[in-house]
Amino acid sequence: MKRSFRRAGLLLVLLGLMLGLAEPASEPSPEVDPPVTEAAAESEVVETEASAESNPTAASAPAKTVSSLPSGSNVAVIPIEGIIYDFTLDSLQRRIDRALADGASVIVLEIDTNGGLVTAALDISRYLKDPTEVPVPTVAWIKPKALSAGIMIAAACDEIIMAPAAQTGDCAPIVPGMNLSPTERAKAFSPIAAEFKNSAATNGYTYATFHAMCVLGVELYLIEHPDTGERLVVNQADYAVMVNGDLSASTGIPIDNSTSTPSGNIPSLPIPGSSNSQTLGPTNTTLDLAEAESYRPEDVGVWKPVISLPSGKSAPNGRFHSGVGLLFTTDDVLAADIGLSKATIQNDADLQRYLGAASVTRIDQSWSENFAGFLTKLWVRAILVVLLAIGVFLELQAPGLGIPGAIALLALVGLFGAPMIIGLADIWHILLFMVGLTLLIVEIGLGGATFGVLGVVGIIVMIGALVISVIPSTGGIPAPGMWNQLLAALLATVIAFVLGGVGIGLLMRNFGNIPGLSRLVLADAQASAGDVTEPTHLAGDEVHGNGHITVGQTGKVLSTLRPAGEAEIDGQVIDVTSLGAFLEPGTPIRVVEVTRYSIVVDAVQES
């Protein structure tokens, strides 16, 4: 028992060192889809939404034109991949600073993400638009996808370009497992809407495009001014005013959960989660008279629908997105048709030609960030968990700290050290794992006195700590929007524990038949020659080489055999292995097999 506690204590010491040396991870952002409350009145959000698109012709401010930069620019390409969370901003800031120090005159963000924490995306968006932080033009290169939080980051750049077959859009705030009320949904959408509106005004985009990516029921139309040739993307309310000249269509519209069209010129805006028909105040799809009066007279009823898009696709009455049942998501072709994407760029050479750049340099993450990211891949973590389990088991079979123990410690460092480097793991995740490990050690030390309860609880706690240590979180708690990633991590970890258990079971049955296994541990120091009362401790080849132990000899168990441990035979302390059963200290035993690598014993049956 003492030996088990002593070796297991080494694991606790290592965890303590990790806890003491690790810098606390920055406080993670709330979540992909932030929780919402009834605290804010619906009218507050409605007011915010209404203001930005009352006059679409005034919503687009002149932006920096990246493609018109003089030839000879130095372009830095910075990849943004995977889940967007707080560390994404930290890494991006470091790489942009490095690019600027190296003389970059254009920053290109190569985006490949399905989304992430909305607060992290908001922080990145504001950072990119701050001229004191990023004083050079920025380009979002969507390659191959920028969904959810990804399009929010792309919209913050001065220009968007896309790779062939790339996709972007789908940015609705959701909380998995919850059916949000209209007020809750409006509360969740409010900061997203405000950021998109700011990006649209700053960088010359049309907000309606982003609005349709976030809210069901927003129709999108491409219209053109007959005199100037200017083209705009507008929603159905703007279309009614600017094309049909119908100011009366901008009054409040009854809204329900159906997808049918109410009386009037503008279809309803379904609010997911609502069950009763209701009338909302002014929004981007229901403008009131005061807002309609803000249109320039020359815009009312003058604009014409673009019924044939540049790619050749048809758009009946100018409409290219119905808003029914689907959030707006676009590929590179449609994005170019409506002016969201300025070019289709396949590779760095195309990018260099498009920007007229003198050089294109990639600024990747540091080797430590890349290595840490590799170690946090679920299949890699599963291997580390298996190595940890088997390493601990083998270490408990022999005295001292041997190769199995060292492997287990390295696996443990990889499981928690890597996530801490890239800002996923928090200190309390390590503390939680320590609690689970302690419970398991106590269960082992008590020899099953708690009928395995402490051990099972300890394993569950350790699995929980391992799972949540690789999921973007809020204060260490996984964000609601990360449930899919959480389930994937849980499944991978449980499978790894099962595989580790199977490996341990196989070792228990074949411990003495695996060549070289006894050489993976280091024996304790031999008793001093002058201490005649201390029994000699023999193990492995020492036993067989001296020929002291033979089949049929008897003795007693000194430490619990699980199935390996120590026994006293012929006045010597011997490392032995039982036939598979756990034997308690004091149990009489008989040697049943002596192999090159182990001594196998069995309990003596009392007559």
TrEMBL record:
Its domain of life? Bacteria
Annotated ranges, domain NfeD-like C-terminal: 551-595
- Chain intervals with Polar residues compositional bias: 253-266, 273-284
Bias kind Low complexity: ranges: 36-54
Domain NfeD1b N-terminal, residue spans: 75-224
Membrane topology classification? Multi-pass membrane protein
- The protein here is known as Membrane-bound serine protease (ClpP class)
Q: Where in the cell is it found?
A: Membrane
Q: What are the protein's UniProt keywords?
A: Hydrolase, Membrane, Protease, Signal, Transmembrane, Transmembrane helix
The region called Disordered is annotated at: 24-71, 253-284
Main subcellular localisation: membrane
Q: Name one GO cellular component term.
A: plasma membrane
Q: Which InterPro entries match?
A: ClpP/crotonase-like_dom_sf, Membrane_assoc_protease, NA-bd_OB-fold, NfeD-like_C, NfeD1b_N, NfeD_membrane
According to its UniProt entry, this protein's organism is Algisphaera agarilytica
SUPFAM superfamilies for this protein: ClpP/crotonase
Q: Which GO terms describe its molecular function?
A: peptidase activity
Q: Where is the signal peptide?
A: 1-22
NfeD integral membrane domain boundaries:
379-508
A Gene Ontology annotation in the biological process aspect, one of them, is:
proteolysis
Q: Where are the transmembrane segments?
A: 378-394, 401-421, 427-446, 453-474, 486-508
